[in-house]
Amino acid sequence: MRIEGVPASAGYAEGPLFDLGQPASIYVSKASSVEERTSLQAAIGKAVNRLVAMVGTAEKDAADILEFHIAMLEDDALSGPAFASIASGTPADTAWRQALDAEIAGYEASDQDYFRARATDVRDIRDQVLRALTEDSDQAAPSGAILYGEDIAPTRFLETDWSHGGGIALKAGSTASHVAMLARSRGVPMVVGLREPLTAVADMALLDAEHGNIVLAPSPAEIGSFRQSSSSFTAGQGKARTFLARPAVTKTGTAVRVQVNIADPGDVDAIDIATCDGVGLMRTEFLFGKTLPDEETQYRAYRKVLEWAGEKPVTVRTVDAGGDKPVPGFTVEEGNPFLGLRGIRLSLARPDIFRIQIRALLRAAPHGNLKIMFPMIATSAEYESAAALFAEERVALAARGIAQKMPPLGIMVEVPSVAIAPEAFTGVAFLSIGSNDLTQYVMAAARDNAAVAHLNSVRHPAVLRLIASVAAFGRETGIAVSLCGDAGGDPASIPSLLEAGLRDLSVAPAQLAMAKAAIADVPV
């Protein structure tokens, strides 16, 4: 039996199925509401201590997730309804479950996949405390098992030993979830959005997370075909690593610049600058998480990356808050946030916050080869307003005798209006195509929504036609054009992107080798 789904982390796994939905132990009620309250307080404390211990040994991406869980558990706004319910005579486990289920329902009701994906984190927090209440220990999955169920908690992923293989197959889940990001960074095969539930446990299952399916009780022929595909995938990864230290060139010798996308200054610690042509996208949303960052915090972050890159360019995107990236104290709640006050629109609406980032960038510019790009530009007036703020802040810094430098200013091409009529932007220093949003807006299909994933393809003729027209505009005007979306690191999309005229791609660090290998096979 073959069940189709959506690939969330490429790879292959074969092994027994392990049910993530096994029932937990039963909680024993206490004699009074005071004891119930004490029990819940102790369980929350135990869960926090357990997470704190995990943070100490976790890599940065995992530590960030765990710290988010800790912050939520320590927030009285989350536990308050449960304690109020206990005071009314409800047992601690029921009170906690009801309070957290209400939070989970709120996230799941969102029309944005990003927020629905966060429901998994709240569900994990709920279960961490329930586990502490019952002193329950999850049954360990057998080595190399394929974990299946409705969804998987981030802590469950982090506690699993993946050194002997294994994978994840989910009926729900999301390619935008924290677990999906962890799986991709660690090479754990993962498929989400399975079209049918896995109701029967098989002795063996085959998980193909390159194409997005799982086979239950496979035949000998299916096993043979699967292992051949798995071997080819592994061989391809090994071959790709040989391209890592080389400049990227096509089969006919055409040079292609390959830069990296980063989300945190610490990302560069694991990247050899010699393997890439610089940073094509440095996201700055990481700085705008729990609190709004001050100028000095931002300056140090930008300077670190610039000094790492040396003479190679570092393209920093001004904060792209809004949409699927809410920031407390900055973004606003909207009915359709992807089409609302986000990106440069929000920055221009809040110049008090934007000017702080501008000053930090101007001060960091002398320390390397800095470039700045503005997200979600739809009109030339938005670019001109943002550029004017940079000019004003530069004059103010110079008047105070503070070292600064005006970097080249460019824009993201992710709103269709810019891709359709780029001639309005002849004054920009460069153009960077954001394939994620451009594809999403052209196809009217969220790329992280499993129900419409088949529509969201950068290789659709309509999307490629826009990309080709932007590339042609760049050649005609001498304005540099690059692409920094996920498509740039997708081996299946790279031939189409190069054929559309692109010669500058920026990819996730983990995709660098595969991208260079794919470029070498393209005859352009």
UniProtKB/TrEMBL annotation:
Keyword match Transferase: yes
EC number: 2.7.3.9
Membrane-crossing segments per the record: none
Chain positions recorded as Mg(2+) binding sites: 414, 437
Segments forming domain PEP-utilising enzyme mobile: 142-212
GO molecular function: kinase activity; metal ion binding; phosphoenolpyruvate-protein phosphotransferase activity
Family: Belongs to the PEP-utilizing enzyme family.
Subcellular location: Cytoplasm
A Pfam short name: PEP-utilizers_C
Coiled-coil residue windows: none
Protein name as it appears in the record: Phosphoenolpyruvate-protein phosphotransferase
Active site location: 178, 484
Cofactor annotation: Mg(2+)
